[in-house]
Give the backbone structure.
Amino acid sequence: MHTTQPQPKSPQLSEPWLLVGCLIAFTALCLAVNAASILRLVFPAGSLAVGALLFFRYPIFYIGYTWWLWFLTPFVRRLIDWEVGWLDPNPVLLAPFFVAFIPILTLLIQLPKAIKGNGLPFVMSAAAVLYGAFIGLLSYSSQTVIIALLSWMTPILFGYYIFSHWRNFPELKRVTEKTFLWGILVMGIYGVIQFLVAPVWDQYWLQNLINLLQIYSFGTPNPLGIRVFSTMHSPQPFATVMVAGLLLLFAIKSPIKIASSAFGYLAFLLTLARTSWLSWFIGLIVFIPSLKPRLQMRLIVTLMVMSLVVLPLAMIEPFSTVISSRFQTFFSAQQDGSFIDRSLGYSNLLSEAFSEIEGRGLGYVIRDANIGGNDSGILTLFLNLGWIGTIPYVAGMVLLVVNALQTRQASNDPFVGACRAIVIATVSQISLNTVFLTPFGIVLWGFMGLAAAARLYETQQAANPPTIETILDQR
């Protein structure tokens, strides 16, 4: 029996890695031989093909693969644009949307059971989005509505898919920990390099943002001038992913944890994303009391060790001047142009948004001189969905958040406590970021799905305690 047991596990480990490796190798080859132009269509198509195979054959591996696509696809886009020229909108960026949309099959198949059971919150929010799409089709082009629908619906589907595998919660936990442990390390290292060196592809992309789209909020395209966005598309979404990963690191035991923390926190600070800095602090405040005293002490010791590693790095040049000057703006809101502009935008649009009964539909974008289309989740909700769509959408989110807060397992398992903290930390940004849309929404709905899976798994374990044989099999 000892000789035959490893045999079925070998293809389980090698085949999905082979699929992903082929996609990586083909992408690298096209970039190396100056054939990057074909990647604009082949990369999203290949990503979808690999994602579909993983979805049907290796569902847990599919989840990690999807996370990595969200982490890295914007970086691939910049490499392609640098080689063959700027293109916006760019089909390469559709790759993670396509792959994360595949779980619509799961939701449709399980819809009757989901409506009657624990999947109801996901169904309520998804129904609200479909309502918004219907309203949008009455006023905007189908292409505009479809693109908006992808951004609204994809996070819900991905979160539901994670939740639907609640029976395999230990595997969900394992793949999430590994993905974010290595993701924070890779994105953190590249983020620091991006700030210090400003690679030519990042300079090229940023220069086009400034020249063609008049976007100046990402800094300047030169060393020490970039607001770090690492391998992702912009500083705020990258910072939100880092909030999730850095909180999750408190629950992970690994020899590379210190390296991930050092580069991760430094890159996180170099985003200059104050909203995310505050949300990390809120997440930490939620996380610590959820643990038992023994685990609280372990977390505090971990925090102290990480501080000893990160603070000296953040206090040396060329990092200290940039980070400290941004921190000082917390105490000078009266002179903070961004704060003033957003306040004016809220005063201009809040009463208008709250008066929307049926909403303006998906595809509507806030156009105000003082506030951007992605600068307020509250305004976006009411203007797109109106009261009719906002009530069921928010109700679904509230049910999941409340469900996460009721998970008793969080006191015994730091991972579950971290998931709950990440959900609260992300929701706390809703007045300043559209946290329910991609890529923010992938973090929010993904970890709401994990928290809901933990709660259901906890309930099942309490009703059917594992036998000694089961425990030995899991080991």
